[in-house]
């Protein structure tokens, strides 16, 4: 079968999601999931009928939450499908390219490479900000520039003035795709207000993180109507199952939004707790994070990751040297993890 696959696919290395990597333990802080298992009720009626391509009630509910117009919203199977739709809709195989700035989310490149789109890499600066000069110098044939803020895995916010500068640089040349998967933990940093000024802006959102619905696979793309209309040409006929619409609308109801706000506040407090405790450990660097995760760095970070893994604390290793990403769980999970790390490093420095 491998020989029958497209040559481009044969060369691909699949994205190693947390679930693909696996693990066995009691503390799972590797996938930036929410620890809250919220309960929903759905009737499972009308399953003999296809769903709407873009369910009106869901589009309107998310538009209200995001404070945009319904015509500026497209829903999809997670933000990952939004990435794929943008690549398929705007990039010509063998001609066009995307550009992204590692260290960042790995699916941008995989979505492009899968259909034969060139990927251009302009690494972030030493403080994980955009290298605007480097980006501008590499824009030839680029149709999409992916920017993640808060960035995964580093956790930092991209400077707003640099985002605006990038939108100006790419105007009439490329679309800037702002990945705001974690923006609900710092909504004041959203770029949605820039939609009023920039036609070349697309924003990716999801219910997976702050709304504790990773298993639902419900995401959104925010953009102006002309861009949304292009995406509607390539999206599958029935991308959002009826139960997904039902549960997502419950999550976006007044009661659901109130609960999400409370849970986000709790996770932000737990993140602050983790940051405070881990920062007090000698030899540990904790990078300020704005999502539901923190990036830490210490000597022998790989050994620390493996030790935690062997002891049932499943974290996420990082492509950044000696770095580990820790999802923010409930307080007990955060305490167990912080105490384990402290004990391990204390023993090594004793």
UniProtKB/TrEMBL annotation:
Its EC number is 2.6.1.9. The modification N6-(pyridoxal phosphate)lysine is found at residue 209. It catalyses: L-histidinol phosphate + 2-oxoglutarate = 3-(imidazol-4-yl)-2-oxopropyl phosphate + L-glutamate. InterPro entries: Aminotrans_II_pyridoxalP_BS, Aminotransferase_I/II_large, HisP_aminotrans, PyrdxlP-dep_Trfase, PyrdxlP-dep_Trfase_major, PyrdxlP-dep_Trfase_small. Gene3D superfamilies: Aspartate Aminotransferase, domain 1, Type I PLP-dependent aspartate aminotransferase-like (Major domain). One of its GO terms (molecular function) is histidinol-phosphate transaminase activity. It comes from the Bacteria. Pathway: Amino-acid biosynthesis; L-histidine biosynthesis; L-histidine from 5-phospho-alpha-D-ribose 1-diphosphate: step 7/9. Keywords: Amino-acid biosynthesis, Aminotransferase, Histidine biosynthesis, Pyridoxal phosphate, Transferase. Pfam families: Aminotran_1_2. Its cofactor is pyridoxal 5'-phosphate. Residues 39-339 form the Aminotransferase class I/classII large domain. PANTHER family: HISTIDINOL-PHOSPHATE AMINOTRANSFERASE, HISTIDINOL-PHOSPHATE AMINOTRANSFERASE-RELATED. Homodimer. Belongs to the class-II pyridoxal-phosphate-dependent aminotransferase family. Histidinol-phosphate aminotransferase subfamily. HAMAP family: HisC_aminotrans_2 (MF_01023). This is Histidinol-phosphate aminotransferase. It comes from Vibrio algarum.
